[in-house]
Amino acid sequence: MKKYRCVVCGYIYDPALGDPDSGIAPGTPFEEIPDDWSCPVCGVSKEDFEPLEEETKLVKTENEITKEREGKNLTYNEITEGVYFVGAEHWDRRIFDELIPLPDGTSYNAYLVVGKEKTALIDTVDPELMEDLFEHLDRLGIEKIDYIIANHAEQDHSGAIPYVLDEFEGAKVVTNAKAKGMLMDLLDVDEDDFIIIKESEELDLGGKTLKFLMTPWVHWPETMSTYLVEDEILFSCDFFGSHRATSHLFVENEHKVVEDAKRYYAEIMMPFRKHIKKNIEKIEKYKIRFIAPSHGPVYPRPKLIIDAYKDWISDRVENKILIPYISMHESTEIIVKYLTDELVARGLKVIPFNMNKTDLGNFAIELVDAATVIFGSPMVLGGAHPQVVYAAYLANALRPKTKFAGIVGSYGWGGKMVDQIKGLLVNLQAEMLEPVLIKGTPKDEDYDKLDTLADKIAELHKSLE
Predict the structure, then answer these.
(1) 384 with 420: CB under 8 angstroms?
(2) Does the reported pTM lie above 0.85?
(3) Distances from the Cα of 311 to the Cαs of 253, 276, 282, 400, 427, in angstroms?
């Protein structure tokens, strides 16, 4: 049986070995592989393989390619001929927008596309690390930049634009009309420095053509993506990104990167699910070999992140209950522990979050696909504890696809905690369950109420199966 080679990365499909990780059994001829199969190394389709007429040691095996990639360092690495990463890694940044925790740091990805006639810089970096950008350009010997493509006006991508304009005389900022106005407001870029493009317009660099796709609300209204036609690379900006500093150009641990991307989606993209669906439909009309986002590593297997996004934006929820809570004098903690145990006994997955100790990013991640959220709080000055108020406010702002929500807690003499929390959840299209508020420490009749709540949740979750 004949072997076939990937023309993109050199991976060899050997029928004797098959591709068991993709469900292709040993002994399967290449011609019998399903048409939707993709290269296990770089992710291109079956169409990008050619017959291997004769074996040669010059052809790289999958292990050799993987080993090579693991050794690459993210500075000005070449994604493909004439396309370079020239961004910056922010290893020790621990919070973004003074709101979002960054356990793995982040990156500000900028890409250089060198054509036969013109050179384009796609996005820049946060001004704090702009010297890294200039160092990479200098190492590549770049003396002229003709175009600065601004996919997004937020300063972690656009902030160095004024400095690039100063350094490279004659460069023009290429973006859409909405982004132009925002960049002029945020960065004080002169109006004469812009070239305005519209949906599907193209820019010829000489052998490399940039096509502009409007992808609004991922996550600002002016956001667009840039598609490199000849090399089939989608520069997606924040779309499909992950807050992760790494020394690897390409994704090298798919599970970890998807986890990071889910955190990024949860904290930034989740409120815009309907817009994301439309944008995915738009980009899937194009053949994509690589997705190069503005944060995190490049995806050599685009299907990985596109399929993950499709799941996150779908209406599918998991058999999972989140309980964000605070306890001041143990009463609420007793309530939450009892309810957690009863739900687990009914075969349900439960994740309690003590809001004094929780990484908010972890709470946001679980909100992506949790079926139920129960808020637990003592009464404080007639209302919920401020930490639980924040949890409710955050859930409301992120607009998860949660199906059911409830409130449990304790009180001393009274208050309006239930009305307060309900009023904070107006964006959730969730059925509100009967609240369980307990005066002081739980008594037998109070445990009965919690049992009834656990039974109700278990019944509702069965209806989701």
Answers:
(1) yes
(2) no
(3) 20, 12, 17, 13, 21
